[in-house]
Amino acid sequence: MKYSLTTLIFGFAVFKMFFGSGNLIFPLELGQNSADQWVFGFLGLLCTGILLPFLGLFVIKLHRGSYEDFFGQAGKGARIALPLFTLSLLGAFGVVPRCITVAHGGVSTLLPHLSLSWFSLAFCAVCFVICLRDRWIINFLGKWIGPLLLSCLLLLFGLGIYYAPALDTTSLLPKEAFSDGFYRGYQTMDLFAAFFFSSLMFKQIQEKMGTEVDNITLIKAALKPSIIGASLLALIYFGFAYLGAHYHALSLGSPELILPTIATHLMGDKAAFIIGVIMIFSCLTTAVALNNIYARYLCSLFKIPNHFHWMLLATTVVSFLVSLFDFKGIAGFLSPILDISYPSLILLTFLSLFTKGYQKLKITGFYGLLLFMIGYSCI
Q1: Distance (Å, whole) CA 361 – CA 140
Q2: pTM
Q3: What are the angstrom distances between the C-alpha of 41 and each of 18, 180, 182, 324, 359?
Q4: In 3D, which of 27, 33, 25 has the Cα closest to residue 45?
Q5: How far is CA 83 from CA 34, 90, 200, 353, 355, in A?
Q6: What stretches of the chain show up as alpha helix (H) in DSSP?
Q7: Handedness of CA 261, 263, 266, 272 (dihedral sign)
């Protein structure tokens, strides 16, 4: 019974760590753009937004929770460069600022005159304080925030289905909707996050099971929470895509306002408070996890383990400054970077899963595809 409860807690923690800013926006935008072809769009999103991150979680488990060993398959330089690159995008230069802008979209329904800069300052201060107490992050996310968010969203989905208007027709072909969903899965950046979240979770499970447990047992123990987390994410993506498609006419404003607008229509003005809380906590918990991982990695990289507080302060300040570009501005500079880098990391993930050894093949494949994508983007 205790083991099952622990597995469930870790499963909710996986769900909550992934469920942040992009996950609150991109499935809704996908449904909004796909209209009556939204199911095909969802299937595309399922590939890159659920299945790929799940493979990322699994491949790090095969390396006993060491993302350095995984990235090192692309060469000695990649062992340092790739974690730094991906964590910088997940941390202060990408996802964390994006979390701030989406959370501001949630609170703007309650406090419409609150500026992004003042909100971002308060958000970053809270994030900084919570990161200083990182030992209880997983338990807190799994026991309280994950189940609470899931309950609120299931209520919203139920009302959305019950009152759903007819779907608008679109000229979009099924393959075009699938392609749109596939691309939006890139934008969530969940494959990047999977490498580091899996490492964090694996180490936590290892601490609970003891150092004497064998690798196969550890992998099996870590796999179950990953399946739970991935299943919950798929359920939420499906619900968001459905809402975006059926309530297309209501949600034509800024991306971060789509969910509050739909919720207010379905549940009245009081829904603004509920959805505001959901969006703030969703973004805060993801930002806390990513900011904590990024700051600790930089401390390790620069060999200053005793200066975590200062490094955390620095990453938090950078996150604040980047957040001032707003959601669309952040998405604008992230998009071309992801177009170039994502395919190579997908290839490295598959090669790591299905080949043992063959490092020259992995190095050639990784850098060959990376150079191709750079050349293709310049055309």
Answers
A1: 42
A2: 0.84
A3: 20, 6, 7, 31, 35
A4: 27
A5: 35, 10, 14, 19, 22
A6: 2-18, 21-34, 38-46, 52-62, 67-71, 76-90, 95-107, 116-131, 137-140, 146-162, 174-188, 190-209, 215-246, 258-267, 271-301, 308-323, 326-354, 359-378
A7: negative
CATH 1.20.1740.10 matches 2-340: yes
- How far apart CA 50 and CA 40 sit, in angstroms, is 15
338 in Cβ contact with 187 (< 8 Å): yes
Which of these, 14, 79, 86, lies nearest to 50 by C-alpha position? Answer: 14
CA–CA dist 273, 269 (Å, integer)? 8
Q: Which residue has the tokens 């595309």?
A: 44
Which of the 8 DSSP states describes residue 50? I
One-letter amino acid of 133: R
Print pLDDT tens along the chain (379 aa): 555 767 777 777 777 777 777 788 889 888 888 888 899 999 999 998 888 888 888 888 777 778 888 899 998 889 999 999 999 999 999 999 999 998 888 787 777 788 999 999 999 998 898 888 755 555 565 566 667 777 778 888 888 888 888 887 777 888 999 999 998 888 888 888 888 877 777 777 777 766 666 667 777 777 788 888 888 889 889 999 999 888 877 765 677 778 888 888 887 777 667 777 777 877 887 888 889 889 999 999 999 988 999 999 999 999 999 999 988 899 888 888 988 998 999 999 999 888 877 888 999 999 999 999 998 887 7
Rounded CA separation 24/184 (Å): 12
Read off the tokens for 315: 């990453």
Cβ neighbors of 326 (< 8 A, separation 6 or more) are 101, 116
How far apart CA 348 and CA 253 sit, in angstroms, is: 38
